[in-house]
Amino acid sequence: MIPGVLCIAAGYLLGSVPAAWIITCLFGRVDIRGGADGQISPASVYYRLGVLPFILAALMDMLLAFAAVALARALNQSITIAMFSGLAAMIGHNWSPLLRFKGGQGATSMTGALAAVLFWPLCCGLATAALMMLVTRRSSLSTAIGIGVIFIVTLLLLDMGPVVFYPLILFSVMLIKRLQLTYAKRHMPGAAE
């Protein structure tokens, strides 16, 4: 049997594949690594190249994180190891060694990992987040509310355990990346004091 640590490492490597960078190189022959927002994400692809490349980059990120969880389960690992593999994929996406430890904020990777572990609660959360986005036009608030819904639905459907807290753990990684980006923007040369 393959040790769980190898599955987690494989998850990290899968998540490290820079989907947004690959798609921008294929579609627009642009390098998004030097973008002003400091992100290498499907959102950056959308702003530079439009809807179709964005969809492809987002799907690729989701599939890579989903594959990290699915691989661990296929190798008869516990749900805990599978969840750690999905978490590792999200960390790999946010801080890819292939991009000098840069990346996106992890929303698409988080979605892929959650789809593999908590599909129906994720559907409820995505529907709520989409509705909130239409009402508020604020993606951060919509994402936070969607994660809250996933947590509540999971809490109602499952016994207490590590699976219940999985959406919150993944969301915390996204928040850490967001804080890192905010800090970096404030301390860039030429930033307003």
Structural notes for this entry:
The chain contains nine helices and no strands. With 193 residues, the chain is mainly α. Helix 6 (107-117) runs antiparallel to helix 9.
The count of DSSP E runs of length 2 or more, i.e. the number of strands, is: 0
User: How many distinct helices?
Assistant: 9
What letter string, H or E per element, gives the SSE order? HHHHHHHHH
- Structural Rg: 17 Å
Head-to-tail CA distance between termini: 55 Å
How is the main sheet built? none
Kindly estimate the percentage of residues that lie in beta strands according to DSSP.
under 5%
Give the overall form.
Answer: globular
Name the average pLDDT: 89
- Uncertain segments: none
Q: What is the structural class?
A: mainly alpha
Q: Which percent bin holds the helix content?
A: over 70%
Structure at a glance:
The protein has helices spanning 4-16, 19-27, 42-49, 51-74, 79-94, 107-117, 119-136, 139-157, 162-186.
What's the SSE blueprint?
Layout (H helix, E strand, L loop, with lengths): L3 H13 L2 H9 L14 H8 L1 H24 L4 H16 L12 H11 L1 H18 L2 H19 L4 H25 L7
Helix pairs in contact: 1-4, 1-5, 2-3, 2-4, 3-4, 4-5, 4-6, 5-6, 5-9, 6-7, 6-9, 7-8, 8-9
List keywords for this structure.
single chain; 193 residues; mainly alpha; 9 helices; 0% strand
